[in-house]
Amino acid sequence: MKNPSRPFATHWEVHRPPVSQAHALWHTLVRRIQEEIDDYESFAREHIDSARMQEAQRLRQWMQGKGARIQAELERQIVNADVQAAEEMRVSLEAALELIELDRTRDLTVPENRDYLLQTCQDTLFALRRAFRDIVTGESWPESPPLSVPGREHILKWAPTEPTGIKTGKPLSLIDLGAAAA
User: Fold this and answer.
1) Which helix (H) or strand (E) holds 10?
2) Domain assignment present for 3
3) Is residue 4 situated within a structural domain?
4) Mapping DSSP to helix (H, G, I), strand (E, B) and coil, where does residue 123 land?
5) CB hemisphere CA count around 178 (13 angstroms)
6) Are 56 and 41 in contact (CB under 8 A)?
7) Do 170 and 88 reside in the same domain of the chain?
């Protein structure tokens, strides 16, 4: 018999362990986000903070609306993933859970730290959406190119033959051009 809270849990879990592991982590993450929203709302209620109570309610509504659509999309991608993609998704899910746990180590008696934790929970779905899309399509962001500082030759190519100062009208020296580029 199927568990209604796990509509996609079928025989594939036995035959594709990475998919099963990613799927289990996915449910752990969703549960954890819901718990953080509940905790945030409880803290706001205890401290009679109506703005934060409204924020918790706003996020809860978002999770039931657009957030639920994103959750369904992500779960579908996990279930339909091949073994290699599911393994990469599992790693992404573990990282998301670790990030929430790391935010939880902050001093949560400070309301702003709770705000940050709640924002992390919401941003996690968007980050996973992008990560899963990259995993499924095989795309990835190229690594940042190394930082390069233009040399004197490059600066001279950009400079007019007779550069002039803006206010003084005097010609700029190569030293001035080098300083302007730095």
Assistant:
1) none
2) no
3) no
4) helix
5) 6
6) yes
7) no
Here the tokens at position 144 are 């940042």
Q: Is 48 left (phi over 0), alpha (psi -120 to 50) or beta?
A: left
With 0.90 as the threshold, say if the pTM is over it.
Answer: no
Question: How many CA atoms lie less than 13 Å away from 64 in the CB half-sphere?
Answer: 6
Q: Are 80 and 72 in contact (CB under 8 A)?
A: no
pLDDT tens-digit series, residues 116-171: 999 999 899 999 999 999 888 876 555 545 545 455 555 455 545 554 545 555 55
CB count in 10 Å sphere of residue 180: 11
Q: Is 21 helix (H, G, I), strand (E, B) or coil?
A: helix
Please check whether residues 125 and 66 belong to one and the same domain: yes
CA angle 139, 143, 144 (to 5 degrees): 135
The DSSP code sequence of 54-114 is HHHHHHHHHHHTHHHHHHHHHHHHHHT--HHHHHHHHHHHHHHHHHHHHHHTS-TTSHHHH
DSSP letters along 107-140, please? Answer: -TTSHHHHHHHHHHHHHHHHHHHHHHHHHHHT--
3-state helix, strand, coil in the chain (%, to 5): 70, 0, 30
* Alpha-carbon span 107 to 117, nearest angstrom: 11
